[in-house]
Amino acid sequence: MDIDERTIIKRQYAAFFIALIMFIPSLLFFGTIFHNAKYGMIVPLVIMIYIGVSSVINRISIIRPKGRINHSTGKQAVIYGVITLAGLIANIIFLFTPFTDILFSWLNY
To answer: Residue 24: its pLDDT value, please?
Structure first.
């Protein structure tokens, strides 16, 4: 199945904006319902993982170096995708450390 590059870029931008929109509501939801807001951070991070996976699989990414107008393609997109995935997985692992209970304690109701 061959998907147009424009469609891939639109889906990656959509995932980015959905993650931004879901950031505050997920913190408030998990903070009020489950009394632990740090788990609300997982929702946007999991959505952002789509951008990393899509960059690696499709070899095109919305992540690009500063000053460049065109989107990253080929090897550079794969590198950015792998770096994105590594960073997001490290963030998810960091969320499960006891230190983050202190950081997110002010959001817990």
So the answer is: 85
Which residues, at least 6 apart from 33, have a Cβ–Cβ distance to it below 8 Å?
Answer: none
Residue 2 is predicted with a pLDDT of 60
**Global pTM exceeds 0.70:** yes
73 vs 107, higher pLDDT: 73
Taking the C-alpha atoms of residue 53 and residue 83, their distance in angstroms, rounded to an integer, is 11
**20-54 as b/e: b if 16+ CB within 10 A:** eebbeebbeebbeeeeebbbbbebbbebbbbbbeb
Please give the single-letter amino acid code of residue 39. Y
Q: What is the dihedral of CA 50, 43, 101, 25, to 10 degrees?
A: 140
Residues 6+ away with beta carbon under 8 Å from 73: 59, 60, 61
Measured at the CA of 19, the angle between CA 13 and CA 20, to 5 degrees, comes to 90
